[in-house]
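Q: Predict the assembly, please.
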Amino acid sequence: MKEFLLDVPVSEGFFSYLGNFGQVEALPNLGDGFYKFEKPDWFSIKGFAGDTTVEVRFRKEVMDLTVDFLYLLFSSYREEAMDLSVLKQREQAVGKRVREHLYGS
Amino acid sequence: MVERPPIIYLNNAATTWPKPPEVLEAVRQSLALPVFGSGRTTGSQGEDSITLAREALSALLVADPPEHVVFTQNATDSLNLLLQGFLAKEAGCHVLTTELDHNSVLRPLHELERQGRIRLTVLPFEKGSVRPDSVEAAITPDTRLMVTAHGSNVLGSVQEIAGIGESLHDHGIFFIVDGAQTAGHIPVDLRELPADAYVFTGHKGLFGIPGTGGFYLRDPESVAPVRYGGTGTDSFSLFHPREMPERFESGTHNYPGLAALAAGANYIASVGVKAVSEKAERQTAFLIGALKSEPNITVYNESPSLPIVSFNIHGMENDDVGFILARVYGIVARTGLHCAPLVHRAIDGGQGCVRLSLSWFTTDEECRTAAGAVKEIAKNANSSFGSP
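A: Predicted assembly structure:
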């Protein structure tokens, strides 16, 4: 588990954006809203809207393959409408390597 | 950045916090003066904190004589020393333990089993304790040792040590009781408790600091020493002394830690263990009653003897509940398996749970806040866990 300190607070919109790459669950009435993003075999991210820290849990065996994509998710996010095609291509490439590493195919 | 609420510390079964002011002062004083240890210095301006700690523990646990109280790093260290030392004399024997036990017991025993040095039976529990007749039924001609927890760190139950010990002693079986969760929390009288060895740790109910612990050993000859070194006594001999407590203690002691342990034990003695236990029982019953009133919460221990409440919220991972408690309410709990995997396999299918654990310093107001927080999370989990 790693705690990431961000330079700006995360928003509900950030977790909605993450939903393009995995499953997001929410308890919006707790604090400023609790959110959890799950990308099976890669990592999970949990945190509260308005907070500058999030907790990330990696799947250890493939962490060296997935950590760069996590940074990319953080750094690419914009509040306005986004073109996700480059991120999706990158996700596909990393996903292939993750599957090969974990399952040999 | 979101402002964090003040801490409500409910992880006392792991390490108690806060410590009594007397404990902090004892550490300060210990470090403010040079170490004074008999045989290790010509100085005489300080207190012999090791002897004072031994006497304090001896008095609190009614463990005579004080020299049979041995200091170690913690309960795990004590258990390893006792197991290795006992089995040095009884190699290849059959050993009993229970599903209630902590990894400090389970891991050394499973390692010994894997090495072919013992045959191991792990007994199931019912209602927070292993039944004495189950112990009796598991005894075989080569059974020489039983090791088990006095109190469960997940269920808060206290085992029927008297009944279990009676069965064991009828068969001449050595009995190690792990008191990590009971020392300081409930009255312990080692004149009465049928344990051959009783293990304690300093940083939990005894209000010491991490890095201290020990055990009481009724018959020193029953366990071989497995560590040797300097004791500050009989130094011309190239063999380690066999007298107590040097038999099991070598190297320089943790002086500030043991000064803290003595202060902690004396603090509890001044309050009275019975008072500690009664307050804990009242607050724990309140918490359990409050949590049980919420249908979305499963409480795993309905009438514990120790201040521990273990639960899960339906549809939520225990780790998420702990995260929310900490971030939104400032409540420090512990989630997961609590180093007791077999208890969890029995009660929650091995998924783990959330544990709230209290101490003498936990206030009624903190209990009310914690109950309200858990119920609020449970109510929200019920209605809205899903996609944003």
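The domain at 21-271 of chain B is CATH 3.40.640.10 (Aspartate Aminotransferase; domain 2). Chain B has a mean pLDDT of 95.
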